[in-house]
Design goal:
With 232 residues, the chain is mainly α. The chain has one domain. Helices cover 86% and strands 0% of the residues. Helix 1 runs antiparallel to helix 7 and helix 5 packs antiparallel against helix 6. The longest helix has 41 residues. It is elongated. The protein starts with a helix and ends with a helix. The mean pLDDT is 90.
Length: 232
C-alpha cells in the first residue's frame, strides 16, 4: 500500500509538471511564432525559443511518465488498457518532441534569413512556414490525439475500478471527448493546426480536470478498497 501511495503522489506531481511546462513553454514561444515576421522575431529572441522548447521537452517526458507511473497499479485491473495507455502516451511524447525539434530548427534558419536580407527571402519564408506547420501538426494534432487515446484508456479503468471517485473519472472521459472534437475540428477547418479561439473552451475542461486529479492523487491517493480488489 505504501508503494501505491507513492505511485499516486508521483503521478500527481507528473500531471502538474507536464501541464505547467507545456503552458509556460507556450508562453515563451507563441508570442514570437504568432508574429507576422516571425523569422525576424525568432532571430532576435533565440534564447526565448530555446527556453520554450526545453520546457516542451520536459512536458513531453512528463506526459509519457504519467502513464508509465500508473502502469503498476492499472495492470492489476486491466493489463491491456494499462499497456495501451503507456504506448499512446509515449507516442504523444514523441510527437511533442518532434514539434519542439522543428521549432529549434527555426533558429539557424532565422539567422540565415536575416543574413540573406531580401535575397532568397521567399525561400527561407517557405521553409520556415513548413517547419512551423510540421511543429503544429506534430504537437497540436497527432500529439494531442495520442494523448486523448492514452488518457481515455486509463480513465476507463478508473471508472470501472473506482480507484478515484467516479465523478472525477466521468469528468475526465467527457473532457477527453471534448478535446478530441476540438482537435478534429481544427484539423479539418483551421490553419495553423492548433486549438485556438472559441475551440479553447473545448480544451479547458481536461486541463482543469487534470489539475484536480493531480491534487486528489497527491492528497488522497487511490481508493484503498479498489486497490485491495485489484490485489485480490
Amino acid at each position: 500500500m505504501a508503494t501505491d501511495r507513492k505511485i499516486a503522489v508521483i503521478t500527481g506531481v507528473l500531471f502538474i509538471i507536464a501541464t505547467a511546462a507545456s503552458l509556460v513553454g507556450s508562453g515563451f514561444t507563441d508570442p514570437i511564432l504568432g508574429a507576422p515576421d516571425y523569422l525576424n522575431a525568432v532571430a532576435s529572441n533565440g534564447s526565448q525559443i530555446i527556453v520554450g522548447t526545453l520546457l516542451s521537452f520536459i512536458a513531453a517526458a512528463g506526459s509519457s511518465g504519467i502513464a508509465i507511473s500508473l502502469y503498476p497499479v492499472l495492470r492489476k485491473h486491466n493489463e491491456g488498457l494499462a499497456l495501451g495507455a503507456v504506448g499512446f502516451r509515449i507516442i504523444e511524447g514523441v510527437f511533442y518532441t518532434v514539434g519542439a525539434v522543428c521549432l529549434l530548427s527555426l533558429l539557424p534558419l532565422s539567422q540565415q534569413f536575416v543574413s540573406a536580407g531580401a535575397q532568397n527571402a521567399l525561400y527561407f519564408q517557405t521553409v520556415g512556414d513548413l517547419l512551423l506547420t510540421m511543429s503544429d501538426v506534430a504537437g497540436f494534432v497527432f500529439g494531442v490525439l495520442a494523448f486523448c487515446l492514452g488518457a481515455l484508456m486509463y480513465y476507463v479503468v478508473f471508472y470501472r475500478t473506482r480507484l478515484i471517485p467516479r465523478w472525477l473519472s466521468i469528468w475526465g472521459l467527457i473532457a477527453i471527448v471534448m478535446l478530441f472534437s476540438a482537435v478534429l475540428i481544427t484539423l479539418f477547418d483551421g490553419v495553423p493546426y492548433r486549438v485556438s479561439g472559441n475551440l479553447v473552451v473545448l480544451a479547458l475542461p481536461i486541463a482543469l480536470q487534470e489539475m484536480v486529479l493531480a491534487v486528489w492523487l497527491i492528497v488522497k491517493g487511490f481508493s484503498p478498497s479498489a486497490l485491495a480488489s485489484g490485489s485480490a
